[in-house]
Amino acid sequence: MKFQVVIDRKTQQIICTEMFNGKAHDGTIFKQTTPVNPSILVLGDSGYRGIQKVHPNTLLPIRHKEDIAKLSEEEKAGRKGRNKAISSLRMKIEHVIARIKGKWREDCANLQSQVK
After folding, report:
1. Strands 2-7 and 14-20
2. Residue 7 and residue 96 in contact, taking contact as beta carbons nearer than 8 Å
3. Into how many domains does the chain fold?
4. CB of 60 within 8 A of CB of 44?
5. What range does the domain containing 35 cover?
6. Which DSSP letter does residue 58 get?
7. Taking a C-beta distance cutoff of 8 angstroms, is the pair 17, 4 a contact?
8. Which of 6, 83, 88, 91 is in Cβ range 3.0-4.6 Å of 15 for a Cys bridge?
9. Residues sharing a CB contact under 8 Å with residue 25, sequence separation 6 or more, in sequence order
10. Are 47 and 18 in contact (CB under 8 A)?
11. What is the pTM of this model?
């Protein structure tokens, strides 16, 4: 099972969630879910590679060889700093996802103990 969570980075409010088969690719999930307003900046991890085609206002880390090869020398020199900045912006989002997963695991454990 795989979840996509859309979170307001400033308020940490969950805007929406989607649940998919665990084998679904992150980019596929994004493309099949409710469209995000084009003015909203999407921060994703490298699993969302390719979503810029459907949502140009996207920031993703540059980690794949093909993507690195397309960069100018100046962009290549700044790539690690850019990736770190994106990662730092995503930290609050990752914390919310960790809390959701922790609560879900807790609820599952409670259900299992009730069944026994």
Report:
1. antiparallel
2. yes
3. 1
4. yes
5. 2-115
6. E
7. yes
8. 6
9. 47
10. no
11. 0.72
